[in-house]
Amino acid sequence: MTETEVLNKLFSAMRGAGPKPEELVAYARERHGYGLDEHYGVTCASDVDDYERETEGVDIPDGFIRIDYWDNGPETLQIPEARYVEALQEHLTSTGATSLVAQLKDIHL
Predict the structure, then answer these.
(1) Which of 10, 36, 73, 74 could be stapled to 18 by a disulfide with Cβ–Cβ 3.0 to 4.6 Å?
(2) How far is CA 37 from the centre of its chain?
(3) What is the pLDDT of residue 52?
(4) pLDDT tens for each residue of 62-97
(5) Is the pLDDT of residue 25 over 90?
(6) Rounded distance, CA 9 to CA 99, Å?
(7) How many angstroms separate the Cα of 16 from the Cα of each of 12, 39, 83?
(8) How is 28-54 classified by DSSP, letter by letter?
(9) Distance CA 59, CA 109 (A)
């Protein structure tokens, strides 16, 4: 599955079940991840604590996020935060939440 397909699948999974658009913007600005269900979620580098890094081997470099998704089984993809924010802006625009897009323009990643 391509990066674009994963992002589309993530945003499609949110319809009606995930965070509200305002919450997605707040999470992106705070560099904080979220979970939708047992199959979909976003984890930012700042969400990972020392225990997860040292004991569980979770490695998300600064400036990246991990997307957990389902594709005939659990999968993960790491992408730059800037790419995620860009995709979020596109999603918000396509769903008519254009007033929120401006709040993502000044994020310093």
Answers:
(1) 36
(2) 13
(3) 92
(4) 999 999 998 899 999 999 999 999 999 999 999 999
(5) yes
(6) 23
(7) 9, 15, 24
(8) HHHT--EE-SSS-EEEEGGG--HHHHH
(9) 18
